[in-house]
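call fold(seq) -> tokens
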Amino acid sequence: MSAVVVAVVSADTAKASALAALAAPAGDVTVVALDPTWTSAEQAAALVAHLGASGAQTLVLATTHQAKEVAALAAHAIGAGILVDVHALTRTPDVLVGHKRELGGTWDVACSVS
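ret:
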């Protein structure tokens, strides 16, 4: 099973636990706390360094404006794909699939990153 990093910006253990539960189907989860006083670029750089050191291939963050910016910066830095606003994850042998609702909840969409 692959390694998954869950990044949280606050010390909110309930949020960290919820994100870890979401990420669990994607692999073995490690939670990383980011300093909330850092800029988005500094947080992204810390995540890129952690991903490189851990060998993790999946990063999970909360759905906030800052987390989306950090995720985009980190994905760009390592040349990775990004799934935004997903509520569930599944993994097949070749791809990670994010599930989300669109158009006011009228459509269920599956988006994959290989």
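Helices lie at 13-23, 40-54, 65-78.
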